[in-house]
């Protein structure tokens, strides 16, 4: 591929929007896991009906979707399932992580989030929506600043200190309205490293609590973390059971995949989490 061509041919705004929508469509399929109509996609993603129809038909012609004429529905083709197979050997064993997430979803009823670092942000790579009567809906690909989110601080705690400090400095500069100091956030990261987890209420979304832990990555070295999120009132009397569930699920995942794991604190006094709130 000619790099000069890439530099000289900047994509139009319409092209970028179309690319974003294509990826959001595939993430929507990953969430619903069933054939869908044009109206289903347009309504779920707030797209114009005509644009949705054009995109879906284009993906059919390219072989990425299959179309059922009778039901007027679309569904990903086998070509999609083959696209990312090579990544699995280079990164985390994704099927086992998805199994871990489904187990946590079934055991807790909470929203389960897998996130990875993306520059100064934590990006939600995969989301299983909560099933409890009161829950928050979170979209895949959502981004949160590492320094100012629960799962972000877990990811930040896994970085070398100089890199973490640089990202904290950049975050504080970008959001001067935040009241935390560099030292306060560093102290929080030290607590997270010691416990092997983070738990905050109201840190990003008022009325929401998240518990998060890192997942060892193996050869790729990219940090990922998994989080359990729910309304404060649903989480309030379930913090310790949810912590035990998450720790056990990740420990089992590690034993199955032969990855090294940093031991976390088990001492009951040091794992007292009922009073953790956003600073």
Automatic annotation (TrEMBL):
Residues 258-279 are annotated as: Disordered. Pfam families: HTH_IclR, IclR_C. One of its GO terms (biological process) is negative regulation of DNA-templated transcription. Residues 79-267 form the IclR-ED domain. Keywords: DNA-binding, Transcription, Transcription regulation. The keyword Glycoprotein does not apply. Residues 265-279 have a biased composition (Acidic residues). Gene3D superfamilies: 3.30.450.40, Winged helix-like DNA-binding domain superfamily/Winged helix DNA-binding domain. GO terms for molecular function: DNA binding; DNA-binding transcription factor activity. This is Regulatory protein IclR. It comes from Tepidicaulis marinus. The lineage of its organism: Bacteria, Pseudomonadati, Pseudomonadota, Alphaproteobacteria, Hyphomicrobiales.
